[in-house]
Design brief:
Elements (H helix, E strand, L loop, with lengths): L5 E8 L5 H17 L3 E4 L6 H9 L2 E4 L11 E4 L7 H8 L3 E4 L3 H15 L3 E5 L5 H7 L7 E4 L2 H6 L8 E5 L5 H14 L13 H13 L5 E5 L5 H12 L4 E5 L15 E6 L5 H14 L1 E8 L11 H9 L3
Parallel strand pairs: 1-11, 1-12, 2-3, 2-4, 4-5, 6-7, 6-8, 9-10, 9-11
Helix pairs in contact: 4-5, 8-9
The structure holds (3E)-4-hydroxybut-3-en-1-yl trihydrogen diphosphate and iron/sulfur cluster (SF4).
């Protein structure tokens, strides 16, 4: 039998599901258990194709806007990324039974933005145009109250109404390094700007980027498990490339691997975005194990022990789950 070549796999830890994703998926699953199908979900509960398809198979129906949902008594879940204020308002006006799966760390940014607004600050949001979290955060306040800044160039061009009453908030899944530069550009121009100590990037985003930084310089290639539209997963690929790894790709699952990139490999780094299930990481490692004789070493750069509460109305069921 042909001898398989050796491959060292360095597995990043932490990787994969964060507390906000875990909570959001549980909300849909518990709602399905408690109320039965269908459960409507506004926007992909998290940006992962496999998660969405698995929930669809259990009876979840995904829509982009509430207007796509017929008048119904079925629960309607808002995705982990958060929603503009107009969404719960519309749901209430239609007497919908809704469950909000917005990550508490995204809600925290909403609260911060609202506080700045009440204090009379002009608000800058650092984030990516069109992303649902950005739409949700901007939508906490009246139109025009929040200006979006995506790059250092935007920060250098930005003209506030009054530099003395400026405040900033950020998207939670940004590149830590890019955001540091944008914040520095804003602080240099507007020393009085109000904001968090560093930014609003969450613990999970920070930890996953840190672990990539530890692994990427040690390997010939990196694979990040995650869907193409997942912002935090895309950032992990960028971080790997910037950390000196020549080949870094995002794959939804093993069947998406472009094997021409992984010929004659001696070492590979593996990580996963905050919305990617661990089963798909295992699937990717197994696919390499079919071609290589693999040795897997986990590189741990942080420990995570965070969990978020499930909405009260679903909690009794959570305690009974698995019985
Ligand atoms: O595109 P994102 O990284 O914001 O979302 P994803 O991939 O669903 O990750 C989990 C949700 C993150 C919210 O902050
Ligand atoms: Fe919450 Fe961070 Fe996960 Fe987003 S990536 S859902 S902010 S914990």
């Amino acid at each position: 039998m042909e001898k398989r070549p050796h491959l060292d796999i360095l597995l990043c830890a932490p990787r994969g599901f964060c507390a906000g994703v875990d909570r959001a998926i549980q909300i849909v699953e518990l709602a399905l258990k408690k109320y039965g199908a269908p459960v409507y979900v506004r926007h992909a509960i998290v940006h992962n194709k496999y998660v969405v398809e698995s929930l669809e198979a259990k009876g979840a129906i995904f829509v982009e806007e509430l207007e796509e949902i017929p008048d119904t008594e079925a629960p309607v879940v808002f995705s982990a990324h958060g929603v503009p204020k107009s969404v719960p308002a519309e749901a209430r006006s239609r007497n919908m039974f809704f469950l909000d799966a917005t990550c508490p760390l995204v809600s925290k940014v909403h609260v911060e933005a609202s506080r700045h607004f009440e204090e009379g600050h002009e608000i800058v949001l650092i984030g990516h145009a069109g992303h649902p979290e950005v739409i949700g955060t901007m939508g906490q306040l009246p139109q025009g109250a929040v200006s979006l800044i995506e790059t250092v160039e935007d920060a250098n061009r930005f003209e506030p109404k009054d530099p003395q009453t400026l405040a900033f908030v950020t998207q939670t899944t940004l590149s830590v390094d890019d955001t540091r530069e944008i914040v520095a550009a804003l602080r240099a121009r507007f020393p009085a700007i109000n904001g968090p100590h560093k930014e609003d990037i969450c613990y999970a985003t920070t930890n996953r980027q840190e672990s990539i930084k530890a692994v990427a310089p040690r390997v010939e290639a990196m694979i990040v498990v995650g869907s193409p539209h997942s912002s935090n997963s895309q950032r992990l690929v960028e971080v790997a490339l910037r950390s000196g790894c020549k080949v870094a790709t995002l794959v939804d699952r093993a069947s998406d691997i472009d094997w021409s990139l992984y010929d004659n490999l001696g070492s590979l780094g593996v990580s996963a975005g905050a919305s990617a299930p661990e089963s798909l990481v295992e699937e990717v490692i197994d696919a390499f194990a079919e071609r290589y004789s693999v040795k897997v070493e986990t590189v741990t750069t942080a420990e995570e022990h965070i969990a978020f509460n499930i909405p009260k109305i679903l909690r009794s069921l959570e305690a009974n789950a698995g019985r």
